[in-house]
Amino acid sequence: MTNLADLTTPYLLLAPDKMRANIARLQSHMSTLGIPLRPHVKTAKSIDIVRQLFPTGKGPITVSTLKEAEYFAEHGFTDMTYAVGISPDKLLRVARLNQSGVRLSVLLDSKAQAEAVVSFAKRDSFNIPALIEIDCDGERAGLQRGDKKIVEIARILHENKQFSGILMHAGGSYHCPDKAAKEAAAEHERETAVAVRDDLLAAGLPCDVVSVGSTPTAHFAKDLSGVTEVRAGVYVFHDLVMAGIHVCSPDDIAISVVATVIGHRPDKGWIMTDAGWMALSRDRGTAQQELDQGYGLVCAMDGTPYTDLIVSSTSQEHGVLSVRKGSKAKLPKLEIGSKVRILPNHACATASQFAGYVVPDGDELVYWPRINGW
Amino acid sequence: MTNLADLTTPYLLLAPDKMRANIARLQSHMSTLGIPLRPHVKTAKSIDIVRQLFPTGKGPITVSTLKEAEYFAEHGFTDMTYAVGISPDKLLRVARLNQSGVRLSVLLDSKAQAEAVVSFAKRDSFNIPALIEIDCDGERAGLQRGDKKIVEIARILHENKQFSGILMHAGGSYHCPDKAAKEAAAEHERETAVAVRDDLLAAGLPCDVVSVGSTPTAHFAKDLSGVTEVRAGVYVFHDLVMAGIHVCSPDDIAISVVATVIGHRPDKGWIMTDAGWMALSRDRGTAQQELDQGYGLVCAMDGTPYTDLIVSSTSQEHGVLSVRKGSKAKLPKLEIGSKVRILPNHACATASQFAGYVVPDGDELVYWPRINGW
Known about the structure:
The structure is a homodimer. Chain A has two domains: 38-231, TIM Barrel, CATH 3.20.20; 250-369, D-serine dehydratase-like domain (Lyase, Ornithine Decarboxylase, Chain A, domain 1, Beta Barrel), CATH 2.40.37. Chain A is built from eleven helices and 17 strands. Chain A has helices at residues 16-33, 47-53, 66-74, 91-99, 111-123, 148-159, 179-202, 215-220, 240-244, 277-280, 347-351, and strands spanning 11-14, 61-63, 79-85, 103-108, 130-135, 143-144, 163-168, 209-212, 229-230, 255-265, 270-273, 297-299, 305-314, 319-323, 339-343, 356-361, 364-369. In chain A, α5 packs parallel to α6 (148-159). The first copy, chain A, starts with 10 loop residues before the first strand and ends in a 5-residue tail after the last strand. Chains A and B meet through α5, β10 and α10 of A and α5, β10 and α10 of B.
């Protein structure tokens, strides 16, 4: 969709002022702590948006796919970390980027991966910088603090001058609605990182990069001594999951899906729209939170939420709006053809359902394409 | 992704032999019942696949978006039904297709929509054929049998020669694991359709089209007297949700996501792969079924399922494989770099995460692009 004259719903609307405020808020916090940010571009996947973070720069950025790495390299970015465990089938694409003048670091947590990366790099005499993934809260991949394999893997990499340092992601912070719990998650992430770094230094190894981050811990960290960079992604847009754990307010959310009313079921208390799961994604990230937002919170086109109106169910191209269970709010009167804006549970998932962003620019709308896929 | 030389995981693999068997199975059943099929292309969204249904033909097909309608029109299809309630903002795109020689029918269930469609068509003196949506099981949109509005709306449309007939979708059949329940859902869909048609005829109105369908009811209908066409979509690929209600077996599923092992967490019984929710979708359609398949059932590359191995959790680009809760099966030994195939919960949702299908063709692989978006 590039012809805005043909714009029909559902489409993804970006509020650039909210996005800029979100970017400024975290940048200001990081400046206070004196730590550089390596934003994760997996949420936005758009050069027009990432240029807001680096108006003239070349990174540093974090990517979640090699397609992102290749796309941002084409746009002049030269400092990237691919923050998903590397597999041998991807080394050719990684090598091509590194041979073209980009510094793309890979991530790993096993000897098998380290040996594959070293042998691939040796064969063609070039460098693939590698980071070891550390697990700080049992949420995903990585080796745990104290695991002897950390030093063994670092040594395999260091012998071929490929070892850069360590990386971790405090994914557990997504389950922390309390301020104190988010602060504790941030401090635990920092402390784990520094302890692992110290083990490496004690073993006579370098550890130049100490990379931590998640949107909640980045915002709630009070001290980042020993850390060399922070990664965060979803903060650029924020979403209902972040609002549900009080990292932002719903009013900070910079993207919404614009939908049109296509029907009514007064017998069921339903308003039907044309934004189903294909537009909103199947993400139900607020289902385990205190306030379940269904498939999204419904707002008027000026951004004001209707009282307790959520997308309560979806099929592929149908969204059902209804009043939240237990609420006494009345269903708003929304005629056929009325437009609403739906705030997403999870910005990364909802944005990925679209090929680009519709962005108000003065009195006009412009279109910022994004990339999906691998 | 069109360069298969650079093929890395995750990618969407299509087994064309399974797909052809699925297509033949339903076509044979419909031939026995003597009712034409109007396949729903919302699942495949690919001309290469829909050409398997209509090798030289022009439809009839069902579409879920105007983008599908425009795409298939460009490929010569001329008989289409847009099976989502129409809104006024979309009429310009509908009109353009109808003026170009395509017959694109729209769907509606309110006077407001009927009046909008009639007044739009009158303005430029051309036809937009319209169907009235009927609800047969309280699952989604539509008017209920006996509602006087059905005749009133039909009359508004008929006065401008725009009334084509009625359409319904027995979405409730997705919750019917029992054979008898699926057969009853099919008969209820048929019976409701015929009763509404008879009400229209009794009111002196025509009702040329009596369109019913869902993948479960299409397969389990024993008699379709009075019906003029059947719609179904997911049957072309099938998926774990369909297998869970015994419309197919897991072995019939024609698409899978190919993933690579990128790590291990023996402490947790996890194998990590590079297919997260971005590849598999967030669909958890088997969660309410008897056998919860997590985010997908894991198979070896030859298609044999590992005993009780499912994708138990996902993040954006990480999938965690583990043995189903309660099972005594052992975690298979899958080294870093091993490939697996993951059968999807919901084929429509998983396929929509990809820009196309990787298809074995003799000893080669070919790529069949698909369209997403609106």
